[in-house]
Every structure is written in C-alpha cells, then in structure tokens.
Amino acid sequence: MKKVILVMDYIFIFMMPLLLYYNYNSSVIFLLFLLSIFRLYRTDIMLKMKFLLLIFDILVVLPTALNSNSYFIDIATQICIYSILAVGLNIVVGFAGLLDLGYVAFYAAGAYVYAIFASNQANNFLPKFFVQFPISGEWFWVFLIFAMIVSAIVGIVLGLPVLRLKGDYLAIVTLGFGEIIRIILNNLDKPINITNGPRGITPISPPRLFGIEFNSPINYYFITIFILIIVIFFVNRVNYSRIGRSWAAIREDELAARSMGISLVKMKLMAFAYGASLAGMAGVVFSAKQTFIEPTSFGFMESIGILAMVILGGLGSISGAVTGATILVLLKLLILKDFSEFLGNIADSGLISIPTELDPAKYERLVFGIILVLACIFRPKGILPGKRSIEYLKKMLPGDIQKINPNS
Amino acid sequence: MKDLTIQLLIDGLTLGFVYSIIAVGYSLVYGILEFINFANSEIFMVGAFIGAEVLIILQKVGILGNIPIPIALFIAITISVILSGSLGVLIDKVAYKPIRNSPKLVAFISAIGVSFFLQDAVRIIEAVWKNAFYVNAPDVLTYKIKFSDNTNIPVKFLFIVGSSIFVMGIVTLFINKTKWGKAMRAVAQDSTTASLMGINTEKMISMTFFIGAALGGFAGTLFTIQYSLVHPYVGFVLGIKSFTAAVFGGIGNLPGAMLGGIILGLIETFGSAFLSNLTNGIIGSEYKDVFAFSILILILIFKPNGLLGSTVKEKV
To answer: Is the peptide bond between A191 and the residue preceding it cis, with omega within 30 degrees of 0?
Structure first.
C-alpha cells in the first residue's frame, strides 16, 4: 500500500510540471502544481535529489511555464511576500511564544521607509541637499538592509515596555501599538506632510540593478523568491542555534528558562527584532512592487491574516509557515476570486438573482475566522507541526521525560 | 464654555455607560475563565443590529408610532438581549468548550476567529436580506428638555443612563445576592473545589457567557438608539476600548469595570475636544483612538491590576 502511494506521488510530482506547461491558464492545474511541490517536500526520497527537484520546480518550471500569465506570477510573488512575513511572525509567535497582534506595524515601517525616499514625498520635509528625491532604483538593495535595521529598532522600542506582560495581555498591547502606528501613518500629512495621509504614496521607483529596471511581474517573482530562500536558510540556522534553543525554552517554561541562565529580556527582544526585520524587508519589496501604498493596507486584518497563516501551517515550523501562507494567499486571491466570478456569471445569466453586495471576494474575514476556529479546535499544532515542543519530545521518548519530571 | 462642558459631559457619559456595560461582559468571562473573550465586541455589534432590525420591523408594521416609545424600546432591548445572550452561549459551546484545557492562547486565537467570522456573517445576512452594508434604525426619543438658554438635555441621554444604572444594579444584585450568583463566584475563585461542592461548573460558565453576551446585546441596542447607524465593523474599536475600561477598573471586578467605562468615556470625549485647542489644531480629534489605545497600553504596563483590582501572584 505504501509503495502504491509512493509511486502515485512520483507520477503526480513529475506530471504536474508538464501539465502546467500544457495549460498555464487553468486555476486547477496551478493549484495542483503547487500541491505537487508540497507532496515533493513530504516524500521520502534522497535529500539532495529532493532539494534539486524543489529548486528546479520553483526557479525554472514555475517562471517559464507561467511567463505569459502575469496574474499567476503575481500570485506566486504574493505567496513569497506573505511567506517572508509568516516566517518572521513565526519567530515571534512560534519560536518564542509571544503572541504579537501588531506585527503588520513593522511591515508598514519597512514599506513606508522605502516609499518616502523613493518618491517625491521626502522633498516635503527634507531640505534640498545634493541628494534629489526620488532616489534611483539602485538604492532598493540598500534599503532592503536599511529597512531591516529600522524595523528591528522599532521592534525593540515597542518590545521593551511590553516584555513584562504575558499571553493575552501582551497580545492586546501589541494590537494597540499596531493600531496606533496605522492611525499615525494615516494622519501624518500635517503639520508636515510625511506620509501623505490616507491618499497614500505613489509613484515609488522600481528596483534597478546595473542599469536594468525591474518592473515586470516575473522580475518581482525572482526578487521575492531569492529573498525567501535566503530568509528560510537564515531562520533555519538561527532556530537550531543557541538563540533558537533559548526561544524554545522560554516558550515552554519561562521560569525554568530563567533559572537556566537565559536572559529573558535579551532573548525576547531578539525575537521581536528578528521578526520585525523580516517584516521590514517584506515591506520594502511590497512597496516597490505595488508602486503605491496607503495606510489601509496595514490594518489589523492583515496582522490576523498572517497569524492565521502561522497557526494553520504550524506554530514553530518554518515549512509550516510557508505552507500556511501559500494556502491562505491562494484562498484569497484565487479561490475566492474564482468563486466570485462564478457567482457573477450565474447572476448575469439570470437564473437566480444574487444581491450585488454578496461578493465572496469581500468576505475574507469570514474565511479567515472559520480557519482560525477550526484550526484551534481540530489541529492546534497546524499542518506541519514544529518539532521542538514538550509534546513532541514526549512522543519521541515515551516514559523517559515523565521519569525525570513527574509533574509534566 | 459652560454649555460646551455640559454637552461634552452628556456625550462622555453616554459613551461611558456603553463602554462600562460591555466592560462588565469582558470582566465576568475573564473572572471565571481567565481569558479575553475577544468576540464580546462582535456580540455587541450583533446586538446593535438586532435592536435596529426590531425597530425597523416595528416601524414597517406600523406600530412604532402607535405605542409609547419606551415600550417599543423595551421590546427591542428584550429581543436583542435574549438573542445575543443565546449567541454568547452558542459561541462558548462551539468555539471555546472543545479547547477548555488547551493553553489560554489557543482559546484567545479561537475568539479572534469567532469575532472575524461574526463580522462577515452579519454582513452576509444583511447583503442577502437587504442588499445593504449597514442599517439605519429609525430615530426615536428625539425630545429634549431645556436646561438653560443654550443647552438642552436629550431624553435619550436620560434613558440610556437610567436604563444602564438599572441593568447594572440588577446584575450586581444577581451576582452578590442570589444562589446562582454565589455559585458563579465560587467557580471564578476555584473551579475544582466548586465542582467538588456540587456546583455544575459548565452550567455556571454557560450562565456567565449568557449574562456577558446579554449585556453586550443591551449595550448594542443602546448604541443603536443613540447613533442610529450600525455597520458590521463597529464593534472592533469599541470592544477594544471597553476592554481597556475593564482593565482600567481591574479586570474581574464588576464595580471596577463600570467605573472604568465611565472614566474612559469622559477622558476620551474631553481629551479629544481639548486636544486640538491645546495644540492649536495640529493634533485633532482624529487622534482620539490613539488616545484610548495609549491609555490601554499605559495601564497594562504600569498598573495591570487596575484601579480596584487585587494583585495576582504568579504560581510556581
């Protein structure tokens, strides 16, 4: 039986890329292709082989097959951006166990840092030096790093006062900070016009490298996928370092961690800073890609969306965060949209009348809400659970841990 | 200046009483389960919708003008309170009960999920039923009593304050004087011991949710009476502010929640009115939510026990 499934998996994994070349406009085939990547990740084949196939699927098959379907490429780019965000939030919520409901504030910080300097906006409040704004697209790469630093500092500044709080109180305070930052961005068009208020900032210069301008969807796909790969590699290393182990210790038992000599303040701030810096970087990419940003893109809904990705994928697991991000972005941008069109077609054909307000694409809150509740009830550990929780270790060594610690 | 102060006082107290009633709902549930029922703000919103719809239906049928207004309001409030209370119990059974023994954060996240679900569920119902995004309830109780030459005191205000004090009195009596109230307090203090004494803890938890949610529905109907316009996302910010009020007064403490709500309503109204005067119009009332959120953060960081709360020691 197991062998049959394995063979089916192989067929599936090798067939889907071909099918994607054959029909690059079908949502179903696109979804199945992404599912085949997931199956590939989960099969038991040689690690090197698996890795090569994954890279081949992501870097060669997907961009070449979808070259003429810019909408799907854009969805793939969005998946990458949200994956970066989910991996970042996973550091704070999943690794360190600090529920952060204002995560989108750091995303906004990164996006606005790049947007202000890469548009005319900075001329409003900075004296005219030898630098003329907007700065050219080459600076994009510098700003990736610069925004990481800025967001990390914002993370530390917001993190310092809230470290004494725990659990739901921490969540509410971070929620408050997130809302405060959004309201400030919304109103900072006077007395000095810094963010241009609710009208948003546009146009934002696209990235450039060696005189080549990056402005097509496929360019952004490559930028985001490379950043995502680097981020995953880096976060994975951090997770298995001394820092990552300290985070896990704090998450499982704060008191025990402190008595083992782990500095709670330092480690919690580090988690905030690491998570925030990734969000800042994602923000730069987002604002360059959209060439237009406004405060409503950074509301509470966005924070909850990212949280839903992390919870659905599995707290404390990087692959889980990416999986969760993929599923929810697809749900939002592909499935709900297709369903909307489907309902629209029915309404147009006149079979049944459907109220115009009833547009499924607008009801992402409903879907995200249901997913959060169902995930909490039926699979609180997520699709791909993290591998370093007390429960997991108990399964690994039946009896051993109980003997050492009878209270656990 | 005096007229302005009276006007602000009226606005602030109206808002404050709405906050404090919702705050009692947060406080009750927190007292018994130690978890923030994030969906409470959406129950408030549902209550506001039900109140508005009842008033609209009464108007359509043609009895709104023919019966005394207080009776119509009483009908709206009763229906809203019963339905919202049942919704609260239902939410507990569906979304919280299966995860009662999981970590607190799981329940909290589930509550966020419920609250998002309710926002769009109400929106869908309105979309299918009326193809609209919000409802506009008929404006009732529009009389005003002349106070001085320039100030009038609206009857609405008197109704809201009077009925709130009445309802809070009933809830306080229920919790402090009746046998059921005693059982609820016992479960809040120590649920294991309470269950050993023969108290049905699950029943008491359901009752707590019913009372908390019913208060949410009551506050929602008051909101409809005061502001008429209700949309599905009205609960979120109001809920956070009411939670602030609950923490301000000391969470788990009912008189504290009431006091906290009234103080917060007054601070917000006076603060946002005088803020633009103080800063010459640079910072205006658009920052009033920042004001409320900052109070929340400052209280949680510096005085998490609130005004009337007691210190909780960490168990090792």
So the answer is: yes
